[in-house]
Write a structure and sequence with these properties.
By secondary structure, the chain is mainly alpha-helical. The chain has helices at about 5-30, 35-55, 60-75, 80-90, 100-120, 130-155, 165-195.
């Protein structure tokens, strides 16, 4: 039996954390010209949206939750598309971002995403594709944040170039596409089971 009240509290907390860090990361990304931070900031906004949708849809039937899960799979693609656009712009003007700001902001994002993943871990098997979407998103984001920190360190100490940041940004886009596929498949299975 799912602890619905606990799940609601967890999802609300995760939504608030994601929305808050979106503002911080977007501001830093804009200030230092970072593709990977831009991609990750848009991902924080997407995660906040996903968790707010989950909060609203928790009381719905399994079939309607599956439909929302399919919609969430499509939403997961948005950060990837935004990242591709930003990467194209960076490719045309390859200025490396400030490495220290990149790494420190990535560390902050990692702390937020690990906290979100821990909050959601005990609920990832409850609520079907909706909570699976939230958990996968938090997990993937933590992996992306480690890569962002690495890109900052590589830029600072090994290769003063826009390429580490650009490659990590493209990797984040690919990870979001894979998470979207997983959520879509889980939602389709739920929809078929309820048909």
């Amino acid at each position: 039996m799912t602890d619905t009240a606990g799940l609601r509290r967890a999802v609300a907390l995760v939504a608030a954390l994601n929305l808050g860090y979106f503002g911080i990361e977007f501001a830093v990304a804009t200030a230092i010209g970072s593709v990977s931070l831009f991609a990750d900031s848009i991902d924080f906004l997407e995660d906040a949206s996903i968790n707010l949708l989950i909060l609203v849809a928790l009381g719905w039937s399994a079939r309607n939750r599956a439909r929302v899960g399919m919609a969430l799979a499509l939403i997961l693609l948005v950060p990837g598309l935004a990242t591709l656009w930003t990467a194209w712009e960076k490719f045309n003007t390859p200025v490396p971002p400030q490495a220290v700001a990149l790494s420190l902001t990535g560390l902050g994002a990692l702390a937020v995403n690990l906290a979100c993943a821990l909050v959601l871990a005990s609920y990832r098997a409850h609520g079907g594709s909706l909570t699976r979407a939230a958990f996968l998103s938090a997990r993937n984001d933590a992996v992306a944040n480690v890569a962002i920190v690495g890109a900052g360190l590589v830029t600072a100490f090994l290769w003063r170039s826009a390429w580490p940041d650009l490659l990590v940004g493209l990797g984040i886009a690919a990870m979001n596409a894979d998470a979207a596929r997983e959520v879509w498949e889980a939602a389709r299975q739920e929809h078929r089971a309820e048909a």
